[in-house]
Amino acid sequence: MIEDLRSDKLQLQQQVAYMDKLLKLQEEKEKKKKKEKKEEEEVKTDDQMKGDENCPLPPLDGFPSCKEKLKWMKDMWGTDPCYSSHGVNGSLCSILIYLSEIESWCPLLPGRGIPVAVVENLEVETEPAVVRGHLTDLYPSLQRRVQFRWIHQRILSMEEIWVEAGRSLSAKYNITGREAKQILVHPGALTDESGFRITDSAFSGGPLGELVQWSDLISTLYILGHHLHLSASIPDLKHFLGLEKGGCPTRQAKLIYTDIIGLKQIQKVLQASWIKYRCRFRILDSFGTEPDFNHVPWSKDHNLTGPFGSLNMIPMQFYTLFPHTPDNTFLGFVVQHHFSAEETEQLSSTRRKNQALVYGKRGSFWKGKEAYLDIIHKHLEIHGTVDESALIPSYVINHGIIKGSEVQVLLRQSKVFVGLSFPYEGPAALEAIANGCAFLNPRIDPPHSSLNTKFFKGKPNIREVTSQHPYAEAIGEPYVWMVDIHNSTDVERALTAILNQTIEPHLPYEFSCEGMLQRVNILIEKQDFCHSTGSWPPLSALQVVKAETDTSCKQACQQAGLICEPAFFPNLNNATNLATHGVDCQTSELSDSQLVFPAYNRSNKHCVFQSDSLLFSCVRSHRSLVRICPCRDYIKEQIALCKACI
To answer: CATH top-level class for 341-506?
Structure first.
């Protein structure tokens, strides 16, 4: 009986194994079928793109995106009447003429030239960009839009500083020979249509980081001599594009500065033709967007979708407030520490007192911090600029919500600027340091991210914030003191050290007016997502570093005193080039299954290269693969630029 049962069990196991084998064979057969079909379609599409006798496709050297645009237009030309109005009828010839003469994605066909109307439109931008000596002509455009009220005030208060910075940069570097570009500036989050009402809250204690950045960007672009077109509403946007009555856009901008809300508004206004402008966008994105959140298929497959991701832009098109991740571009802002003659006179009489100023305009930020503040109060008189006095300790001298210049006076009177762990990464900490006030920077343990913190939930990254202000954390003592606000001994230690010395004002160059002018000017002149041939940053700056397993390229480059440079990834994404850097690929393959490629396996010398350029990433690591990292040097306190970049 037992033997019969064993026999039946064995027979059943053999049948299950046989069925598994059949299923696997069937799956492999289906995969093979799909692969063959895909290859067949690609061959067919490639054949379609070869042209015909009447319209042969010219050599595409120098036009890396031409083939992709041809394929897209072949399927999508009928989605927008603008294409047919320019003669596109679905034939390859008409598409190629459009992409070479109306736009500049493809080479001109033999015997053809750019139409006179297009040439005249292009010639508008050939006047030289000259550094401006005043901001007077900028103000009317700001004053016409209530959304720019706070921005106008800040720019007006800093005009002297901007003009002097422009003169100083011109004296140090040759910045002549530039073209004055037509630039559209559309802060979508400031529009009434967004519903955020950021401008209204700016005068009653609301967050100012984004407004500061927009103010300083507008000032920078104008001082550098470019033609600015400001937009603060959908009607503004339609007016600039010439779309009030529908039809095709009649005006174009060489560059478009917007934010994620603004990008979606522009996409809605332009419909399918927005793709023509894709490479011209520069998207202000305070906390940054990592490649896996940006990539549409990847974010869907890995459940990373959210309100701000899945935009399928080149990650370097996202411009951040601080240099969070090298996958994005650091735009920054300016820390105001110089003042007009009248304000300077007021500040000259300011003397440092035995007082602290607390960083936190909302009473709710102070909740649960009483014990921490009690320790500080034993040493210093505490001041605040809070919206609700009832929510703060009775010993705090509260000035309420006050003007920026009055805050500067308080900072110059104080010895310590007290962080409360929130808000994260605002401009105020650097303003304190620039005014000679030490910053108490609370540690955050465990680090906060979109995986564990409500504030970051939905943001398109998983960057871990280890303190209230990670950039300030890197500046370190004597300007910035890391504290565990729940450890009285730690807080006492920092206060004792601060009060036993004089803290001199300190401002990193990249957060000065001149530093921002230098950085933005080079980005405008050199950073090109439309016709990039990989010439910037210069390849001479490339330094290759091998990241150990479980180490990202960001970490590996930092450990070598360098920064990861994603623009160099394509140069390392093949076996021939890796061989010149001491990596011997015995076997290799292309794949988009991970964000760590190019990488290799030490045990079998098998290399894997990235098949999707939007998935190049400086910030991801792998448990078993060694990453090949493209690093570069950087100018001290100007991290966005390499030493050969200026």
So the answer is: alpha beta
